[in-house]
């Protein structure tokens, strides 16, 4: 099993929109709007890391309102 | 009582505008244009944390000229 | 319900030790050693935010091997 | 009047100690332990900026438990 | 005498333009395009800090091509 | 021989486009889309550092989709 | 094939020592002391990502003089 | 002519000591204790970049009290 945490900075004021969009995506086991230096955190889980990486690159990062992402890959999934 | 410090990076040249807009908002006990890695700092105070969080999310972060925010929640308010 | 994500930078080489220590703590629903700019991520869940905050301040941050933490409080828990 | 916000990263587990030490210092109008990428925030106020700067440099930064500080000088004090 | 170092991130590809614009400004004793996490550094010198701060806020930060600035005020000018 | 590592943050969703564009450029010995706090990394090699620096400044940084770059110059090339 | 870029901040003055130690390690295809916000960069290559991750976690991060690391996993290896 | 700006984070409370030590070093045209996210900034000038880089690596970074440095090489020296 593979797990990836995606830390997202949104365009200002777009947190809710990004949050709703991510909730409906594949492999997403949890999404939260958060305080601190990031705006949204999403957790992706799938049976292979490359599935998640492709999906983030080709689908998630193209979602409206996302300005910057930092990817944390779980080594203990 | 709840207190939140909002560290704001504005669009370049928009410090004064953001500063003036924040001064007029609810729960805002102080605003300053600052030097350093941030442009404006605002202090919010209310009787509940969720009031402040909702207000920041749905009102403040939608103000014109705000590019990025970092939220610091006071644990000793 | 309250949820907090704790992004942890450990002393170099102490990831495994911090990971094992956090796994045994109260309110911890998940811990992972991760890649990227952080070393470990822990998710705390409890019926009140102040319980988690006190616990992080008085227990977690005093664990051996933790160098720096960034706290993300979920606004959509 | 001059005002300076000091964002402090403490040695892990030393937040309470730094918080208590700062509360007793000159020119300090407020101190809070906070969540997010910093651990403590202190607000200094005095009739001149150089008084505050000297004090931070020669007194505050030598307090036990302080690892890193970021100084924000208010331009609208 | 007051001295301020302004670390500037420009819009990508705008380094030369920002560099040329800053060279012609008041109080600027040196400007350089640089490598590393910033794109341009400018040093301002004047007989008072507030003159420089006002100028940066009302003139420099409104120059085209500037995305983000970090201000370092010299305590040993 | 001179070697420079260019750490690139792209506009969200533009990783593939930037990656393809950089692959075709002069002096580029390797390009990768990556996880973590950056999106793309490119390695430049040439017989002189100034050749690479000029090229990055006048060609690479003007490529579409590049938001921010951090330059690491190899001291052991 | 898997490739990982490791961005390393060393204890101050320990760059050369870390550089020499990393040069002799398994999977390391290149190491450089660099300028900018990091001190050393190392590139690891192996036939599987987990081999590299284990090695970084259990061997590299325990090397003397390493203070902080940021891992970038190549998605286009 | 080559010019390098060195942004320095010192051990907390060691600013004055680092400042005095750097003032006496070769190639140093200016040093300042500063506010903001760094503690000291030093400007090095010499007839070749490699002279400055060697000196920073083998002499400056081994000075007592220096925790972290970020090197900005001037492309317009």
Question: In what order do the strands lie side by side in the largest sheet of chain A?
Answer: 2-3-1-4
The span between the termini of chain A is 6 Å
CATH-defined architecture of chain A: 2-Layer Sandwich
Into which percent range does the helicity of residues of chain A fall? 10-25%
- Give unreliable regions of chain A as ranges: none
Please write the string of helix (H) and strand (E) elements of chain A: EHEEHE
CATH class of chain A: Alpha Beta
Basic shape of chain A: globular
How much strand content do the residues of chain A show? 35-45%
Multimerization status: homooctamer
Q: Based on DSSP secondary structure assignment, what is the total number of beta strands of chain A?
A: 4
Largest interchain contact:
A-C, 21 and 21 residues
Indicate the radius of gyration of chain A in whole angstroms. Answer: 12 Å
**Which structural category fits the helices and strands of chain A?**
alpha+beta
- Tell me about the biggest sheet of chain A? 4 strands, antiparallel
């Amino acid at each position: 099993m593979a797990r990836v945490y995606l830390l997202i900075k949104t365009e200002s004021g777009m947190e809710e929109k990004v949050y709703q969009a991510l909730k409906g995506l594949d492999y997403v086991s949890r999404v939260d709007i958060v305080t601190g230096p990031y705006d949204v955190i999403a957790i992706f889980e799938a049976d292979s890391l490359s599935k998640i990486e492709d999906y983030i690159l080709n689908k998630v990062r193209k979602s409206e309102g996302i300005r910057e992402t930092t990817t944390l890959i779980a080594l203990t999934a």
